[in-house]
Specification:
With 302 residues, the chain is α+β, with helices and mostly antiparallel strands. It has helices at 17-25, 38-45, 64-67, 82-95, 104-108, 130-135, 142-153, 169-184, 188-191, 193-205, 250-264, 279-286, and strands at residues 10-11, 50-53, 58-62, 72-76, 98-99, 102-103, 118-119, 125-129, 160-164, 211-218, 221-231, 235-243, 269-271, 292-294, 296-298. The chain has twelve helices and 15 strands. The strands form three sheets. The chain has a seven-stranded mixed beta sheet with strand order 9-10-11-12-13-8-14.
Length: 302
């Protein structure tokens, strides 16, 4: 099905993945920004998200729960003409949308000296080097190495770590059950409704994705899993990572193992996605020593 021209939005569907990948190929980004990763768009935006074609790229309308305020209008294109920017701005005003989450590639292609861009740091993506994350070599990794040693010398002695196949119903159900148990420690389903819905959508399309999933079993039960997806010739993206609390070093073991497998599969970099300005999430993501950040921008006051 052909992608319709803006402002004729279509509900985002699995077959639009090719349109998103084509738009990404037209930019110079070595990794897709999280908001435009084809899988992330599908699972976090769902059918409430809309997609349309621009002259040199795509524009998407994201539901409010992704950003926490109004619905968001954002686009991915190496060049935006004056007329196209004017049409996008007028549409946003009419529909009550925010012009936000603009990737670096889009910001660089806006008409010169016609707009004022604001950086949105809570939505910048954390980029990690997979081999560095897997090996923890260097003084900056001393704390993570100690965490790993605690796991190896403790729960790790009887743990089983291995690859999971989310196309396998048994493995998928194990991850689902662990997710539910994890939520019981984090305020329940109501407090985690958006992420739970995204995971449910993710589970439905997992069979079609190039995933690497690591599971850790303690006392015969799945106690942690981490899911990464390879993208392009040398990139990958974290999707979901859950670990039961109270097991020293478990998350560090999980993360390093996943990055080791992704590196074996040819991924040099992995997008750790954004922290949404949440202090705890920000601290956790920074502790993994990002190599760089993918910035995103907004257009103030339309």
């Amino acid at each position: 099905m052909l992608l319709h021209r803006f402002p004729d939005f279509q509900p985002l569907q699995l077959h639009h993945r090719a349109d998103v990948e084509l738009a990404l190929s037209r930019t110079s980004a070595y990794l897709p920004p999280s908001d435009f990763h084809p899988t992330s768009l599908l699972v976090w935006g769902g059918s409430a998200a809309g997609i349309a074609k621009l002259e040199h790229g795509i524009v998407v309308r994201l539901p409010a729960y992704i950003h926490g305020r109004s619905d968001v209008l954002t686009w991915l294109a190496p060049h935006t003409s004056h007329d196209e920017l004017d049409a996008l701005t007028k549409f946003a005003v009419t529909e009550g949308l925010s012009l936000e989450l603009l990737p670096e590639a889009t910001a660089a292609g806006l008409p010169a000296k016609t707009v004022v861009l604001l950086d949105t740091p809570g939505h910048s993506d954390y980029i990690y080097e997979t081999t560095e994350t897997a090996t923890l070599v260097g003084n900056e990794w001393r704390k993570k190495r100690r965490d790993l040693e605690r796991f190896i010398g403790g729960a790790g002695r009887s743990a089983r770590t291995g690859l999971m196949d989310l196309a396998n119903p048994k493995h998928r159900n194990e991850c689902r059950q662990l997710f539910v148990e994890w939520m019981s420690h984090k305020g329940g389903k109501a407090a985690n409704a958006n992420e739970w819905q995204a995971f449910e959508r993710f589970s439905q399309i997992a069979y079609s994705l190039n995933l690497t999933t690591i599971g850790v079993w303690l006392n015969g039960a799945l106690s942690a899993f981490s899911i990464g997806e390879s993208f392009g010739p040398s990139g990958a993206t974290f999707h979901f990572e859950k670990a039961m609390p109270g097991v020293a070093g478990l998350t560090t073991h999980l993360r390093t193992t996943l990055c080791r497998e992704l590196a074996k599969n040819g991924a040099d970099w992995i997008n750790g996605q954004q922290d949404l300005g949440v202090p705890g999430l920000k601290h956790s993501k920074r502790s993994w020593q990002p190599t760089t950040m993918l910035q995103k921008f907004s257009l103030p006051n339309h």
